[in-house]
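Lab notebook, bench 4. The sequencing result for the construct came back, and we need a structural model before the next group meeting so we can plan mutations. Quick request posted to the team channel:

Model the 3D structure of this chain.
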Amino acid sequence: MLPVCWSFAIAAAAAEVRVLSAEAFFPVVAAMAPMLEKPTEDKLLVVKDTAAGIAKRIRDGRNFGLAILPPAMLEAMGKEDAVSVGSIIPLAKVVAGTQNGTVYAGAVPA
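Done. Here's the predicted structure in token form:
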């Protein structure tokens, strides 16, 4: 949990922080949003989509402060220079499966 708060604080340079969340992780983001907004007084604009839909938004150059996607997808996007490989941070492990959730905190596409 602490890395998410830390990475959010880095990304929170504006009054509105756009969070792109894959559908599977959306309930967690929605539950955490008020806790993240309160200390900074910034507003989270949470966008829910499929993982492929979020990846397309990023590849198309949409601005965001935080994106939550499967690690393999983010690693592939890093190889394409769509995101900075150094800003991919492991966030959570899915209890029912074998995939990890991964967070990309940072800027617009490279």
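Helices lie at 2-11, 26-40, 51-59, 71-79.
Will bring this to the meeting.
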